[in-house]
Specification:
With about 150 residues, the chain is mainly alpha-helical. It is about 60% helix and about 5% strand.
Length: about 150
């Protein structure tokens, strides 16, 4: 298996888990563990937008951070995520090797494309972890992530 195929497999599996975590955010929750922290829905929207940004960056050679306004509900966000998730996996599989092995402009600097993709995947997993720590204090449950959770043995 080549690196891009490995990445795509990881991406596909992690996006399923990310979807499960986002789905547990209670509608209307404004919980944040500290005034400096963002809400779970704010973090979830960042994940949705980052996923779209990195595939577009590898396809075009240029990263642009222009997230649209967040949807009003988690249900709407999940609808966007579900549609986008399937499309992004297809796009990773179709990405030309020259793009994967090439460079992209990342806010004024040229960066190697594939390490940037991995970096974004790890950042998304990090943000998903933040959300998972918010779930119980928000009155929700934590889904299985890499194995059983206290709520899903």
């Amino acid at each position: 298996m080549d690196e891009r195929a490995l990445f795509t497999e990881f991406w596909e599996n992690e996006s399923k888990t990310t979807r499960n975590v986002i789905a547990r955010i209670p509608e209307g929750s404004n919980y944040r563990p500290d005034p400096k922290s963002r809400t779970a829905s704010d973090i979830a929207w960042q994940i949705v937008c980052e996923e779209k940004m990195i595939i577009e960056a590898l396809e075009t050679g240029q990263a642009e951070w222009k997230p649209p306004p967040a949807p009003a509900t988690i249900k709407e966000m999940l609808g966007i995520y579900d549609t986008q998730r399937a499309d992004i996996v297809r796009r990773w599989k179709a990405l030309p090797a020259a793009r994967w092995d090439g460079t992209l402009e990342f806010f004024g600097s040229q960066r190697p494309a594939s390490p940037m993709a991995w970096s974004f995947l790890f950042d998304i997993v990090h943000h998903r972890g933040q959300i998972s720590t918010y779930l119980r204090p928000m009155g929700s449950t934590v889904p299985q992530i890499y194995g059983p959770s206290g709520d899903e043995p």
